[in-house]
Amino acid sequence: MAINRLKLTQTNVQRLIRAHGGTKKERHWDTEVPRLFLAITPNGSAAYKLQIVKPDGGKTDAKLISVDDGSPEIARALATKELGRMALGDADPVARRRAKKEEAKREAAATFAALANRFMASPEKSPPSIKQRTYDERERLLRVHILPQLGEVPFRKITRPRVRELVRQIQAEAAKHPRAQEGSNPGARLANECQGVIRAVFNWAIEEELVEVNPASFRKLFRDTPDKRPQMPEEALKLMWNSLRSNMGRDEDRNSWTSALAIMLHAVTLQRPAEIVAARREQFDWTPGQETWRIPASQTKTNETYEVPLSPLAAALFLEALAKHNQAWVFPNQVNDDHIRHDGPKQRWIRVRNKLVKQSKENAESCPVEGVQLYDCRRLGRTLMVRELGVSPTIAEACINHAPDRSMQSRYDVGNNVDEIRRAMNLWGKHVGNLVGDNPMADAINHSATNLKAG
């Protein structure tokens, strides 16, 4: 490699590049600034570089500027500035760039988005340790509502006022949605759920000794527990049921019968809508007189397997749904790759209710379903079981699969309540059937179950 010394001027630089033979590297050192040189590669490209001598005696080159980007005067100014920084003990440009990249990596790893990703990927916060639906809901809340605001913020710099401000923003934005107006406190539940996810992430970070304080550990800002609702009129259930039945015969799309039957089964089985829409064909036992739906622990709110004794009406409704298709899900979506949305029954209820209310107002009549929510069916069943059907509160609680009593008294009561629960479910199913005029005979159910197994 040729080594030459001359004052690097624009004229000399252009001449050296033109004279370059294109077979080897060349360095042409500047006589004005020590260790500044023009480097020409075999392919003819050129750049101003500065030779750096490290404290350990090693040498390296730092590119200052390419020939196309500036003049030798600019290169000399940059080189002089760099030499002055190194004289004061500052690191060389290569080391600074490497340190800058490492710092950028550390900063990226220190963001709330990175912390949330680690939280979601941890074994104890992923299925099967938690329910898939819980995991998916946390992922959705983070992606849609939390990370757009906090994702790039270093998690150690997130303060309690910052989280409180975000929770208020989420509530205010959610309250604008038309569906939010159905509740007594619009946006409150979503805001509190987002706070809960942030709190869970930081609690995990504390356990991992990544932080010492949880900025989301404050009391809920919004009251999301609804007031005690009045008892749902039985006429409302009858009107809604008959309306769903009549529309099922006219509607062509699958969503019409899936959500309609899911609503009816919610009223008859008193199980949660999200558990009903996720039912699978394999979860049913069609033994005559002992028809049972077994909900796996991964799908229940209590995280425990629950067996639902099916009344004749409930069994008939499930068989009606299964007879419409051969999919694994009882209520498959339109593309048959999953079940219908968990809020499908709720939205169908709202649409039918609004239609019925509108029709009543046009006729200057009162409507029993006005203001009635889907979940009021579950409340009605729990109420009437105890007050009118003679079911004990303990069995009524078991029928709706509330978390079991963990008191010392219950621990010593090891009796099996399956028969009492089935009796209560049959009483309630018969009551609903008599109310709505849809009460099939047991032999017809057994016949349908036999045909279903044969198919």
Key features?
single chain, 455 residues, alpha+beta, Double Stranded RNA Binding Domain, hpI Integrase, Chain A, 3 domains, three-stranded antiparallel sheet, 8 strands, 50% helix, elongated, disordered C terminus
Report what the structure shows.
By secondary structure, this protein is α+β, with helices and mostly antiparallel strands. The protein folds into 3 domains: 2-106, Integrase, DNA-binding domain (Double Stranded RNA Binding Domain), CATH 3.30.160; 112-207; 234-454, hpI Integrase, Chain A (Orthogonal Bundle), CATH 1.10.443. The protein has 17 helices and 8 strands. Strands 1-2-3-4-5 form a 5-stranded mixed beta sheet. Strand 3 and strand 4 form a beta hairpin. Helix 11 packs parallel to helix 17 (442-454). It is elongated. The protein starts with a strand and ends with a helix.
How do the helices and strands line up, and which of them pair or pack?
Layout: E1 2-6, H1 10-19, E2 26-30, E3 36-40, E4 46-53, E5 59-66, H2 72-87, H3 93-109, H4 112-121, H5 132-150, H6 160-174, H7 188-207, H8 234-248, H9 254-269, H10 273-277, E6 284-285, E7 292-295, E8 306-309, H11 312-322, H12 344-362, H13 376-387, H14 393-399, H15 408-411, H16 418-436, H17 442-454
Parallel strand pairs: 1-2
Antiparallel strand pairs: 2-3, 3-4, 4-5, 6-7, 7-8
Helix pairs in contact: 4-5, 5-7, 6-7, 8-9, 9-11, 9-12, 11-17, 13-14, 14-16
